[in-house]
Amino acid sequence: MSDDSKHRRIRSYVLRTGRMTPGQERAFKENWVRWGLEHSDGALDFDARFGRPGPRVLEIGFGMGQSLVAMAAAAPEKNFVGIEVHKPGVGRLLHSMADDGVDNIRVYCHDAVEVLQDCIADASLDTVQIFFPDPWHKKRHHKRRLIQPEFVALLTRKLKPGGVIHLATDWENYAEQMMEVLSAAGGLSNQAGPGEYAPRPDDRPLTKFEARGERLGHGVWDLLFQRD
């Protein structure tokens, strides 16, 4: 086994082979040049790419993008960057942006860790949000969960002082792990108080995952931690 194989990073996702719908494919082709970002372009100049300054919000794993589009439409003064590895979701996001006339999102279709490391400057973000990441609910798969100490340290480094990490999950065991990891991280303070979960902020739309969880009697846990 090579050294590269032994030290290969455990990924928090599995690339699905789902096909894009004709509408998603068309939206991708028509809008990628306008709203897409390439990891290979290196460091992102937010103000140049958006054509203006503004608060910077990074969302990791936006799925089909409905809540991200809703948040961007409700906060036109903010500049949102979304990262999603699944191309159909990116196509759906671009389709929704075009349909709804939302212009304040730019999107990567790439691995989030690589984007953070190679494209996002330290102390450059106002908010990082990760809503309902894959819980990898089987215990033997917990090592695949995205929220791990090393990843949280990377997120913290990318936040401006006073910037916020906002996580949400409908899996109680994952919420407990998130709380443990964020509470132990250096340079972060729990906005709700030590060991406390936050109420859902008004600016986080009710997602289909949350609605499903409510129907099934599941709780939802929000965590908001601020960089010191």
Q: Pairing-aware structural class of the strands and helices?
A: alpha/beta
Separation, N- and C-terminal Cα atoms = 42 Å
For the record, the CATH class of the largest domain is Alpha Beta
Q: What does the overall shape look like?
A: globular
Mean pLDDT: 90
Q: Biggest β-sheet: count, sense, barrel?
A: 8 strands, mixed
By CATH, the topology of the largest domain is Rossmann fold
State which percent range the strand residues make up.
15-25%
- The CATH architecture of the largest domain can be named as 3-Layer(aba) Sandwich
Provide the domain count: 2
Unreliable stretches covering 5 or more consecutive residues: 1-7
Binding site for S-adenosyl-L-methionine: 59, 84, 111, 134
Function: Catalyzes the formation of N(7)-methylguanine at position 46 (m7G46) in tRNA.
Binding site for substrate: 138, 170, 207-210
Family: Belongs to the class I-like SAM-binding methyltransferase superfamily. TrmB family.
Chain-wise SSE layout:
Blueprint: H1 3-6, H2 22-35, E1 36-37, H3 46-50, E2 56-60, H4 66-74, E3 79-83, H5 87-100, E4 105-108, H6 112-119, E5 125-131, H7 149-158, E6 159-169, H8 172-184, E7 188-190, H9 208-215, E8 221-227
Parallel strand pairs: 1-4, 2-3, 2-5, 3-4, 5-6
Antiparallel strand pairs: 6-8, 7-8
Helix pairs in contact: 2-5, 4-5
How would you describe this structure to a colleague?
It catalyses: guanosine(46) in tRNA + S-adenosyl-L-methionine = N(7)-methylguanosine(46) in tRNA + S-adenosyl-L-homocysteine. Substrate binds at residues 138, 170, 207-210. The chain has helices at 3-6, 22-35, 46-50, 66-74, 87-100, 112-119, 149-158, 172-184, 208-215, and strands spanning 36-37, 56-60, 79-83, 105-108, 125-131, 159-169, 188-190, 221-227. The chain has 228 residues and is of the alpha/beta class. It has two domains: 23-121, Vaccinia Virus protein VP39 (Rossmann fold, 3-Layer(aba) Sandwich), CATH 3.40.50; 122-228, 3-Layer(aba) Sandwich (Rossmann fold), CATH 3.40.50.150. Strands 1-4-3-2-5-6-8-7 form an eight-stranded mixed sheet. Helix 2 packs across helix 5 (87-100) and helix 4 packs parallel to helix 5. The longest helix is centred in the N-terminal third of the chain and has 14 residues, at 22-35. It is globular and about 45 Å long. The N and C termini lie far apart (42 Å).
